[in-house]
Task: inverse folding
């Protein structure tokens, strides 16, 4: 008695068919791989101004200060996000215990 009723043979035939299609399509698309691409394969060049050592140092300090300010804002935001639910839970627990 055969289990599956032809499903296995159907699967094998489908796998063979897909494998044969894969090899025939591979050669067709390998040639035209970059013809229809909108991306250009060239190096991007940037026109950055030349800065002196002093200007670079000032820029570095400015960026560090901005990063510190951003970090302080994030810490304050997280502190509020965590503190507000704790306060609400504390109030609820105190009123329910009365």
Result:
């Amino acid at each position: 008695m055969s289990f599956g009723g032809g499903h296995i043979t159907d699967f094998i035939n489908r796998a063979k068919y897909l494998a044969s299609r894969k090899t025939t399509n591979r050669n067709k698309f390998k040639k035209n791989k970059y013809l229809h691409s909108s991306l250009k394969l060239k190096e991007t060049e940037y026109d950055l101004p030349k800065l002196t050592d002093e200007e670079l140092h000032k820029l570095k300090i400015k960026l560090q200060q901005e990063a510190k300010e951003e970090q302080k804002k994030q810490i304050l935001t997280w502190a509020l996000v965590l503190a507000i639910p704790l306060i609400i839970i504390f109030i609820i627990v105190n009123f329910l215990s009365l």
Q: What stands out?
A: The mean pLDDT is 82. The chain has two helices and no strands. The helical segments are 7-31, 53-96.
